[in-house]
């Protein structure tokens, strides 16, 4: 009987020691993790609001979830009406229009009729490519929101290229870029094809001596 009690006591003590050791190891690991996080914070490697901009560069570390932000981490405002895009119900308000707290034109709202010449940032491409980057998709999302709110609005996408390569090559490349934008608007954002006009200018309408600026598609909403 005594031997059995001694054996049970030994098992109990062994189990307790093992659990204590595991607990100690866990606490040590937790402490190390805390130190890593503190070091990352000090080095500016934390992205507190998970907007894709590190806190060290982020001018607004408490951005709303999934809100579009600029490279500085502040809310994007495409039409510059002082209403951030994530709140803006009319993200492509024509310049000079007075808007309400939701970004909708007041005193002659653009949402009731097509807004002519609404300013939209150009869509840019890599050298020799017609593939859309993610940052360019966010611009097209603004176009899609505007067109959804304005059923009579139409859009013209105008493809361009720089002067690298032959004129024929650049003409075809500008066409591919314009078609890529149209395809994205129709397939990803459900805009009807008959509301989108495609135009390709090749290298005939250079905007700048900077090559990258000419690898673009201009978007005009009417």
Outline the secondary-structure elements.
Blueprint: H1 2-42, E1 123-124, H2 134-149, E2 155-159, H3 167-187, E3 196-200, H4 211-214, E4 216-221
Parallel strand pairs: 2-3
Antiparallel strand pairs: 1-4, 2-4
Can you offer a commentary on this structure?
There is one protein chain. This protein is α+β, with helices and mostly antiparallel strands. The protein has a domain at 110-221: 2-Layer Sandwich (60s Ribosomal Protein L30, Chain: A). The chain is 37% helix and 8% strand. It contains four helices and four strands; from the N terminus they run αβαβαβαβ. Helix 3 (167-187) links the parallel strand 2 and strand 3. It is globular. The N and C termini lie far apart (95 Å).
Q: What's the overall geometry? A: globular
Number of continuous helical runs? 4
Series of H and E elements: HEHEHEHE
User: In this structure, how is the largest beta sheet organized?
Assistant: 4 strands, mixed
CATH class category of the domain at 110-221: Alpha Beta
Low-confidence stretches: 108-118
How far the N terminus sits from the C terminus, by CA atoms, comes to: 95 Å
Assign a percent range to the helix content: 25-40%
CATH superfamily placement of the domain at 110-221: OmpA-like domain
The CATH architecture category of the domain at 110-221 equals: 2-Layer Sandwich
DSSP strand tally: 4
- Quickly give the structural class: alpha+beta
The radius of gyration computed from the alpha-carbon positions, rounded to a whole number of angstroms, is 28 Å
Instruction: Report mean pLDDT, rounded to a whole number.
Output: 77
In the CATH scheme, what's the topology name of the domain at 110-221? 60s Ribosomal Protein L30, Chain: A
Beta fraction of the residues?
5-15%
Q: How do the strands of the widest beta sheet line up side by side?
A: 1-4-2-3
